Amino acid sequence: MTMEELEEDGILLPRDQWGKRELKSRVAKVPLLVIAGAALGSVGMMYLGNGRGLTWMGLGVFFASLTAFTAVSLSGIR
Predict the structure, then answer these.
(1) For the CA atoms of 47, 53, 54, 57, what is the dihedral angle to 10 degrees?
(2) Does a structural domain hold residue 16?
(3) How far apart, in Å, do the first and last CA atoms of the chain sit?
(4) Does residue 6 fall inside a structural domain?
(5) What is d(CA 68, CA 26) in angstroms, rounded to the nearest whole number?
(6) Which residue range(s) make up the domain with 73?
(7) pTM here?
(8) Domain count, the chain
(9) From CA 78, how far away is CA 75, in angstroms rounded?
């Protein structure tokens, strides 16, 4: 796609507005920090589990946090 097509589709701002708006993320930071903590905790669980039950619980928490991260991130761009 060309830059003009992206502007027409509303994906890019018109050229006269480039650099005039403040760049700010609409993604909520607190939920992302909680999710990051859960992901780090799950890595610790997988390490300490040594292939046993705690490893699999950690893997489940990791995939849940990955799903939550994706959902929160997508909610910020809608």
Answers:
(1) 110
(2) no
(3) 21
(4) no
(5) 16
(6) 25-78
(7) 0.70
(8) 1
(9) 6
